[in-house]
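Retro notes - structure team

What went well: the batch runner handled both jobs without manual restarts.
What didn't: labels got mixed up in the shared folder, which is why I'm recording both outputs here explicitly, each with its sequence directly above its tokens.

Job 1
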Amino acid sequence: MPELNAGGEASPRPGPGGGALQVRAFRWWFFSQVLSASGSMTQAVAQSWLVLQATHSAFLLSLIATATFAPLLAGGAYAGSVVDRFDRRLVLVFTQSSYFVLGSALGGLALAGTLPVGGLFAFAFVNGLVSAFDMPARQVLVVELVGPTRTANAISLNEVVINSSRVLGPAAGAVLLATLGAAACFLFNAASYLPPLAVVLVILHRRGALGLLAARPGRLGGPGAGGPRRGRGQGPRAKATNGGVREGLAFAWQHRAVRYALAMAVAAGMLYNMGSTLPLVAARVFHLGAGAYGAMVSAFGGGAVAGALVAGRGPSWPSARRVRALGALTGATVCLDALSPAVAGFFAGLAVAGFLSIWFIALANALVQLRTGPALRGRVMGLWSMALPGTTPLTSLLVGGVATWAGGSSGARAGFGLSGAALLVTVALGWRSLGDS
């Protein structure tokens, strides 16, 4: 009898690459996420533009990111414990509905001309609070939709969503902002959350009708479906408990491969925070304008999409050795690219860094999820959200401090290369712990 997944259908026999898009519920979820992630980027464009136009302050502009990511850093672990206590789909109904309400309220205030700068910061903070619950719930839902054998492929496809939205969202935001104004960007973002909300409601309805899942979260489609296999050096098993934050913290610390994967995610976060590094490289190192900065982001994004697709074609069980090797290659590539004397070489290095880094981070994410038992998966993925992107407010300050301290073109190169150096250090520290297959 074929295994049933959380979408309510028989899971087709997976090939070497996992085949997550073969699962109809995940396919619906995937395409709805492309739309909603692009909507988020569209709102971010309008939000940043309004703050800059109202304040003319680069410092206040940077605080928008702080307001957005601070709740992830402060509350990610607690939010993960909530995801472990409740049905992930019910959590997502709450988060997608909240995003819709917040986007609609922003659009309405902007249309009425009564949206103060302080209101933009308040909305950014509340959005961050919702994201603290949304991110771990979304990541755990993927495992429940497709099952462990397709998790690596599904997570890689999620990276395609993220990097596609970095292209589609700003483009849509620029057009809407120039033609219809900021309110249209906010309302477009609000509407973009209706498709994923509908997908989750359909999945909930099918679950209720067919009785596929137990009320307790973390149970997959069949007996033993959620239990990751144990390998050498994998560490302790997660206990089937609905306890608090400390169990998740203890598991992540005791499980050495998970611990170092989280540390590597923090280091990689400095690379993905390109708004703090690439404008400096474009202006101070190569003496180019805003167009070159945009082209640099596109070069990285193009490589990242290719890396995500390659990651999805790999083994269904990601090895810690492969994560270790890709982390080291990514760090070395970033460091070498930071030293590039020619702009063409820098662009090529960005594409390679995007390719390797997304391949690495997709496998690291899958490793963390699959080596964590279902009862603790929400809490551990809450920690992942704290690491990436939750530490962005702190790592942005670190990158900016290094660039300011070194000064000029050397500071710009050092700020960009810092993530590569941090990745190499974390790989070196976790070399033995990440040595199991």
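Job 2
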Amino acid sequence: MTSTQIPDGYRLYKAPELFPEKIGPLYFRRDGDEYEFGFLVEKHHTNFNGMLHGGMMMAFADEMMGIQVYNAIGKRPCVTISLNFDFIAGAKQGEWVTLKSSITRQGLSVVFIRGELLVGDKIILTADGIWKIIGR
């Protein structure tokens, strides 16, 4: 993979020796307080049919939606307590996948978030999650 395949403005998401590096490489870009995450579908992200593996989609959404929640709550610890997915379409090797997500509600101890994985303008997965704020 060359950096020319990664859209402008994206930087490598680093998490040395942690889970995100096992499923990566993953990327992010920031515009003020807004984050967008993405990855280029590589062979190791695919299943036997040559399509993006559903487990990769779920792991990516869980990790990156969690980062968005973490940033939104002042970088306090939080954990996923519920995450529901709907698979809409597939992605192939060489395609760029982005996650766009937004917090839909925030309470004192939980945060609700909705996300979409996209290839271009095509939604390939939707996710609805709840994160628990640790220590609340």
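One thing worth noting from job 2: The chain has one domain: 3-133.
We'll revisit the folder naming next retro.
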